[in-house]
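Title: Prediction job returns without error message
Component: structure pipeline
Severity: low
Priority: P3
Assignee: unassigned

Description:
Job completed but the reporter wants confirmation the result is attached to the right record. Sequence as submitted:
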Amino acid sequence: MPPIKNKPTAIRKYCSLACTRASELQKRYGPDYKFLTRTVRGAVSELIVCADLLARGYEVFRAQSPTCSCDLVVQANGRLFRIEVRSATRNLNGTLAYTWSVHDQSRSDILAAVEPDGRITYVPEIDV
């Protein structure tokens, strides 16, 4: 009698989580995304956040130097907010994963975490 093969319990489109993420990045940025440097990917994320904030009606100013203390400054109702833009991913349990150290928090007021699919999470939420 031939051995019984285990049938897969779910039909998966990709072989692993890494392949799934790579596919998401390619859909978002095109097939050459993997060849972009971290600096270019960071600039793309900053521009995505700029476009979102402009669409919400804020005045947005972008740093011209890569060594500035924050990435963006937003003016709303006469107040200025410093924004740090970071790349983020989702853990397997669905929670957002990003790095924002105590040092970063002292240099900015708001974190904008940009996921590969373009979703932006503001920490704390922009409420002006």
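Comment from assignee: result matches the submitted record. The mean pLDDT is 80.
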